[in-house]
Amino acid sequence: MLSAIKRFFDDEMGADKQAVDAEQRLRLATCALLLEAAGADSHVAPEERSSVIAAVRRQFGMNGDDVERLLELAEEELRASNDLYQFTRLIKDHFSRNEKLSVIEALWRVVWSDGVLEAHEDAMMHKVGSLLGVDHDELMALKIRARGSAPDAG
Asked: Looking at the domain that runs over 2-148, which CATH code has it been given?
């Protein structure tokens, strides 16, 4: 598993090894949270999967096969993990406040992408927001903004 992650980023980045390792872990952590948000209601709707792909493209400037490979690696990491702490800890420790807020907004967009906010999704978002150190007011403002871009938002 780790060799697959290393190979992916070695092939794609070709930069300083430590910088690549840190960047790859942050991308993987962010992608894992996006996938967890998509499946928080025990079903990944096609709109949610599309929203995850769009978020990865937007956050990291990735396209095509690179996005799919990152998603596969993140899915493997999620299956191997017991909770979200390992992912949120990386983001909390290494992302700026604005980057954290960007991740939270992307997560809200994913959970709203099917037009329905389930209780499990809302609970997960509050948990992730807390783990990332995002204030409740900011969390709610991002929720409202993401809701405004949801498919059935009027």
From this structure: 1.10.3680.10
